[in-house]
Every structure is written in structure tokens, then in C-alpha cells.
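I would like you to help me understand the sequence and C-alpha cells below and explain how sequence relates to structure.
___
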Amino acid sequence: MKKLGIKKETKNIWERRVPLNPQAVKELIDKGFEVVVQPSENRIYKDEEFNNVGAKLCEDLSDCDFIIGVKEIYQTDLIPGKPHLFFSHVIKGQDYNMPLLQHILDTKVTLFDYEKITDEKNRRLVFFGEYAGNAGAIDTLHGLGKRLKEQHGLDTPFLKIKHAYQYKSVDDAIEQIKEIGKEIAENGLPAEICPLNVFLMGYGHVSHGSRKILEALPFEEIEPEELHSRQADLKSDRIYISTFKEKHMVERKDGEEFVLQHYYDNPTEYKSCMEEYLDLCSIYVNAIYWDPHSPIFLSKEYLEKIQRKNQKLIIIGDITCDINGSVQATVKPTWPDNPVFIYNAITGEDTDGYKGEGVAVMAVDNLPCEFPKEASDNFSKALMPFMESLLLNDYSKSIHDSSLPDEIKKACITHQGKLEKDFEYLAEYLG
């Protein structure tokens, strides 16, 4: 009988999500699998809820056949030689996580990453992205209200928007923000910040989650190409949302025509063209997948330039939260109860809170944890179709020759002490 181990989350006190909820665990047990759950006082689902459906509670997962968690698992908690599935954040080759990858290779851990479970069109199948977008947009609007009040002395309806984790659910947040939106529609926003232009970067799951929140406010959509010609006619009783796709964000260095697939294949041959629009941006919502080989879209140099004059940009909601990535003001991650810092591009310094010279940055790096139950339930539903094959697979064989579905084969980063073919590029980052 195959045995599944579910890790408790230890990255921080805010991480309350589970990869499988009790209902999913019961389904596995009913199929003849054993499930062992590490006890946790922090988890959104209590230990007894797992115990009540037949799971065993135990700290020791060493005799389990397969281990799953949500966030990164500490090196000391990995079980040598066992297959693990979690968000490892190693695929970009970022320095901070290369010791984890090296340890995984050294201990012959088979690593699967949720981020790479994709269909034939490379679309992710198991994700929290929409909840990241929900929470990120809420925390950004919350930060907007606080920033306008504490730095500029402006009272706006945005002050009534709470931290995302203070709402009962996403629907609860939307309903309350709709009421705030009625105030904006009736009374308008201060002239000093109008028109209030929201730049929504990207159009995937994260962006869709952000849009659901933003559209609870009175809004009008403006295509990026129309931004400059429309400004004189924009009103104070709504916000204006512009969705930026790759064709708006980059251009070829050699001046040739933009082709999306060519950009995906050759990102270093492109440069950002965002400065054409950025002088009109009030709120920058970063909801894109970014690779270190891609252009930087909001650079320190640009932020310093606008800080030295009368900048329109009030707050950056960096949902992607790549440290020193496409948004170079994101110099550190933040926490749900302290989501915003001020980045001074002239000095390079950051200050927690809402006051100070520069731009406000919302950079919570595990936003879905602010809606832990909803996020967990939807994630669990998406993951369950793959669990039986993951548990029954013979890991003494190569992944290529295994019985795993293609969606899972593509998500295997390491096996038997080696990088899988699609991830051999990571060797150059290991040194």
C-alpha cells in the first residue's frame, strides 16, 4: 500500500495553505492509499479534520513513498531518495535557492514542481495564481489609500479597503469594495490624483484575479495605444484600467516587427518600451511571469528620473515579487500585515510603511495565503487528478520511461541525482 506524506508549512507564520484538503485525503484513503499528515497548529484545516477522514498524524514522514507540500521545504526536512512535490522556485536559477537545488541533487531527491505541471500549450494546471491576483490587488488598493493619506494628506474611499486577510473570502472583499466604488462613482476622487490610471501587466491567471477586484470599482478600460490621446477627456468618478501585453511592453532591438513566439524564444533580443506609457501610470500592478533574460520594465533609473520631478506613480503592486526583477523597486518581500514599503530611487533606501520620498511598493511574496481555505480547496481540486499516478509510479525507472502522464513528466526537475533534460540549463547556476 503506497503512503503519501503531507508536510506542514514552515516558511512563515502566514503560510496556512494545504496542497490537499481533508476531502481529497479521504478520496485517496478510500482508494486504498495511506496518508500521513505532519501535525500543525497553523494550518487552515485542523489536525483533527485530517484525522477524522482516516489520515494518520505523525511528525516522521520518512517511511512515506511520496512527499508533498506547498512552499519550499528546508534542506534538513527533505527525505533523501524520496520523490517530493512543492513550489521549489529553482527554475529561474536565482542565487538564493541554488543551495536547495544542489542539496536535492546530492541527496537524490526526485523533485517535481507545481509550476511546471502544464498542458500541451504550456498552460499551468495546478496553481494559486488567481488568489495571488485577488489578494495583491486588494493589498495594493489598501496601500493606495494609506499612502495618499499619510504622505499627501488626501482622504479617499480607498482608506476603507482592508488588508486582504481581513476579509472572510474573495466574494466578501468584492462586495465590500463595490460599496466603496459607489462612493467613487457618486463623489469622484481628488483632482490631484486624476485620472487614476491602473496599468495591469499581463493577462494570465494572476492578472485575471487582480481584475476581478479592480472591476468591483467603477472602471473603464483603455487600450494602451489610446492612453495619450484619451487623457484630456478622462473623469474623476472612475478608475481607468489598461492591460499590457507583450506587444506593448517590448520591442526588438534590431527594429524588426514584434513576433510573440520570437520574443518567448529570444528575450535577450528585445528591450522595454514601457517608458512610452509610464508617465501616465498611477498604479502599476505587476502580474506577469518574468524571466531574468527578459527586459526590465520598471528600472531604478526610470524611477529616479520621475522621483526628481512631479511623479504620477503612487504605488506599485508587485504581485510577481521577483526581487530586483522586472520591477527594480522590489528590493525585498513584505508580509500581509505589513505589505508596503517606500522605495527611494535616489538614495536606494527602503522604509517600511507609507510615508517618505519615493514610490510605495506592495511586495507580499505569498499572497494566496491571505485566502487560505479558498486557495487550498481549488488547488486541491486541480492536483487530485494527478495524485494516483504520482503515488503508483515506479521511481527506480527513468522519468521518461515511467507511467507518469506527460503533464507530470514535464514537471520533474531532478531524478536520481541528476537534472532532467529540460532543466539541464540550471547546471550553469550551480557553479
